[in-house]
Amino acid sequence: MRLVKKNESEDGYIWECRKRGENAHRNRRSMQKNIWFAESKLSILEILLVTNMWMKIANRVSIAFEIGVARSSVTEWMSFCREVCFDMCDFESSILGGLGDIVEIDESMFGKRKFNRGNRVNGSWVFGGVQRGL
């Protein structure tokens, strides 16, 4: 397969079989077929821009304004990016520590104080661990 510029496709390119002659397949596939932005109404460029700005921690309103797409589309793609990251962390996670290994553990509580008073904070505890020297 080779990438060929075609104006009739939605993104301007298609994959086309290289085989020629009497055994030619004449197979053509959209560039977006069977990839993670298939079936999106956004162009590949818009999707890549949303993903790039999401990685730079821009908020959805500024992303939608800069690229010129609907906020709902940006929200959907940001959720998808978070889901992909979560799945990779879940898939790639491993057990820390072992005999003779040192693991540093930290905990933090994320919550919001009411009116900046010294009252108790309702929030969520988050624990993390790092093994040095991996």
Automatic annotation (TrEMBL):
Superkingdom of origin organism: Eukaryota
Cross-referenced InterPro entries: IS1016-like_transposase
Protein name: Putative transposase-like protein
Gene symbol of the encoding locus: X975_21745
